[in-house]
Design goal:
By secondary structure, the protein is of the alpha/beta class. α19 crosses α24 and α24 crosses α27. It is globular and about 85 Å long.
């Protein structure tokens, strides 16, 4: 018998203990062992079977080592059907997590008991697929159509209490999982309980599945897997038998398995885990990290401080005056109130964080004991250098000095100190206590243990940390500046900002580039444009000035109520600002441009080609070490649709040769902007992909 399942008898009960650490993943050995165990129990005359997991969990899901490999017999759907068909009473005792295939095994058991801390869920939608071992057929039979649909299409985890209320489990009991499982199984035998197969229960309620399908597709911004789950649950309600429902579930599962979206979501899943694993940091110990300082208590600084407090760090908030410091404390308290309302912290924790863990200061001397200081002051080089000169004078030896700059040269900032090896860029995204991305910007002289500490901080703050090199805008903002220029060029040539925004949200972006600009504040882009013009633009570069006129009128987007869109208090979103069209028309006339029509498809293709081309330059120059670093940056910081995997995964799926062909065609009209990335040309010439580079550098 498989060593992954230990078989033993306790009287009339055959006990199947999973022992495949660390999470009892449902790999081939576990599947074989469960099948052999059920068959042996039946042969040897047992009256019941108890299934549970050794260690910290029941079956936590599929074995990720098998992802992308041909499936091996016994297949999980067949195994679940075989467990359910057993003439013996089969009981699952759950602790830790029962996720995906794990919950499907539990649902194929006849009875289920769990410890109070157990978590369950069917998270397959996050991998671009659906529960393919009966989950969409059995869960609705116990939980009801609507509740099962919400659980399956969201892919969320839920606790034992909710599972009991929904009828997914039969009992919650305190104690050792083996002990409570055996006691419950024996109780069922003593009561003469009959086997109770979920698949033999009445079909769930029929609802308006067509309306739910459309609503789910819209909510997922085009992601197919949640919407396809609706069709699978529809089969549970409408198919004449469980067998027919399972057949339809399998058909839909295979459709998703063969979809581009599954490729994108699998790439995102593995890349998210790989992005912070850097070979150069292997064996490098981070510096101690208990107390941090934050300079500047505006939206960004307050968000950074909030994230640090929630991670258990003590924070010194430095501001220019006592009034500004109190205002910063108010912003932090407001952020923490949100955590309090969501049940993330208690009232006592809120009080401790705001009154004990947070210290307000107006003098740099207060930062003398900080292990790490992050400045979040005005995005101006002279201001940053002045701050770092003061930090150099006041911070203890070994303290890490971090800048939250979005664009500026971290090497130049580091040169303002006598210890450039201690200086690093930690580029947070606003609101910093919510947004998951952290760019760890490594300057020329940054010490390796400082880099390791940057990643350790990101881990403690629960961020997705990406290593970036120094250039204007690092990874994310450099690529953003380029694809945003592509959008601006299309506006001058005839597209409207509103058509572009719609085409890109239809593609799956959370927001279009012009709505994003309004959200961030048009004054930010304005400052960058003025800085770059002052430095001197290449005469070949196309520049546009209509948006400057919006800013000159004091309209900076959402914060002023007007930008590309007009925003009314209390209303979500905005309506197009008619003044923008007039400004665009004036600039076209000044430049002698005759506007032409753009299709939505051309808008998406040009926008994405610009993004991929610049991303390839970023990787080629070593600013990003791997293509997956770019993908994770765009996914977690810039609203790129997760189900497309990231711009470079998307490019691989579309075909690099085809994409390079588009870029070369566009270069005929603007050779400067559309200069093909050398790395992209190299990959096409060699018949390789961006993913090949990920594998080489993993």
């Amino acid at each position: 018998m498989s060593t992954a399942i230990h078989y033993e008898r306790e009287g009339d009960i055959a006990v199947l203990k999973a022992q495949n650490p660390p999470v009892n993943a449902l790999g081939i050995d576990i599947r074989k062992g469960l099948l052999e165990g059920i068959e042996r129990a039946e042969r040897e005359g047992a009256h019941a079977v108890l299934i549970y997991g050794d260690g910290r969990t029941y079956f936590a899901g599929a074995d990720i080592k098998e992802f992308g490999k041909p499936p091996q017999d016994p297949y999980l759907p067949d195994l679940c059907n075989r467990i359910e068909a057993s003439p013996l009473i089969v009981v699952s005792a759950l602790h830790g997590t029962a996720l995906g295939g794990g919950l499907e095994v539990a649902l194929s058991s006849h009875y289920r008991i769990a410890v109070p801390s157990a978590k369950m869920g069917l998270p397959e939608v996050h991998l671009g697929i659906l529960p393919g071992a009966g989950g969409t057929q059995r869960l609705p039979r116990v939980a009801g159509t609507q509740r099962a649909l919400e659980m399956i299409t969201s892919g969320r985890h839920f606790g034992a209490k909710e599972a009991l209320e929904a009828g997914i489990i039969d009992r919650i009991a305190e104690g050792d999982v083996r002990t409570i499982g055996l006691a419950y199984t024996q109780e069922l035998l003593d009561q003469g309980a009959e086997r109770r197969a979920v698949g033999e229960m009445p079909a769930p309620e029929v609802v308006d599945f067509d309306a739910l399908y459309e609503a789910t597709l819209k909510k997922g911004r085009g992601q197919l897997s949640p919407a396809t789950c609706v069709r699978a649950v529809q089969a549970a309600a409408e198919a004449p038998s469980l067998a027919e429902g399972l057949k339809r579930e399998r058909e839909l599962f295979m459709e998703l398995m063969n979809s581009e979206q599954r490729l994108g979501l699998i790439h995102a899943f593995f890349s998210e885990r790989a992005v912070s694993k850097l070979p150069e940091l292997k064996g490098v110990e981070p510096r101690p990290l208990a107390a941090i300082g934050v300079i500047g208590g505006g939206t960004m600084g307050a968000g950074i401080a909030t994230a640090a407090l929630l991670a258990g760090l003590s924070v010194v908030m430095l501001e220019m005056s006592a009034e500004a410091a109190e205002a910063a404390k108010g912003r932090i308290a407001g952020n923490l109130q949100g955590a309090l309302k969501r049940g993330k912290i208690t009232e006592d924790q809120f009080t401790r964080l705001t009154e004990e863990a947070l210290t307000l200061a107006v003098d740099y001397a207060a930062l003398s004991e900080a292990d790490l200081v992050i400045e979040a002051v005005f995005e101006e080089m002279s201001v940053k250098k002045e701050v770092f000169g003061k930090l150099d004078a006041h911070c203890k030896q070994g303290a890490i000095l971090a800048t939250n700059t979005s664009y500026l040269d971290v090497n130049e900032i580091a040169a303002a100190t006598s210890r450039p090896e201690d200086v690093i860029g930690l580029h947070f995204f606003s609101p910093a206590h919510v947004m998951k991305l952290l760019e760890v910007v490594v300057a020329d002289k940054t010490a390796l243990d400082v880099v390791a500490t940057g990643f350790e901080l990101g881990k403690r703050l629960k961020k997705i940390s990406v290593r970036a090199g120094v250039c204007d805008g690092f990874i994310g903002n450099r690529i953003l500046a380029t694809y945003r220029k592509a959008a601006d060029h299309m506006v001058l040539d005839g597209a409207s900002p509103y058509q572009i925004d719609k085409a890109l949200t239809d593609f799956g972006f959370a927001m279009g580039p012009f709505a994003v600009a309004d959200l961030a504040g048009l004054d930010i882009g304005w400052a960058v444009r003025k800085r770059k013009r002052a430095e001197g633009l290449d005469p070949r570069e196309r520049d546009s000035s209509y948006v400057d006129k919006i800013c000159e009128a004091g309209n900076f987007g959402q914060k002023t109520g007007k930008g590309y869109y007009i925003y009314e208090v209390g209303k979500r979103g905005g309506v197009p600002n008619p003044e923008v069209s007039d400004l665009i028309a004036s600039e076209r006339a000044e430049k002698g441009i005759t506007p032409r029509a753009f299709s939505d498809e051309e808008i998406v293709t040009r926008y994405m080609a610009a993004m991929v081309n610049e991303a390839a330059k970023v990787v080629g120059e070593g600013i990003a070490r791997r293509p997956l670093d770019v993908d994770m940056t765009l996914l977690f910081g810039y609203g790129f649709p997760r189900y497309r995997g990231g711009p470079l995964k998307w490019a691989d799926i579309q075909g690099l040769e085809k994409l390079l062909g588009h870029i070369r065609t566009y270069a005929e009209e603007d050779a400067y902007f559309w200069s093909p990335a050398p790395l992209l040309e190299q990959l096409v010439a060699e018949g390789r992909s961006f993913d090949d580079l990920n594998k080489e550098n993993s």
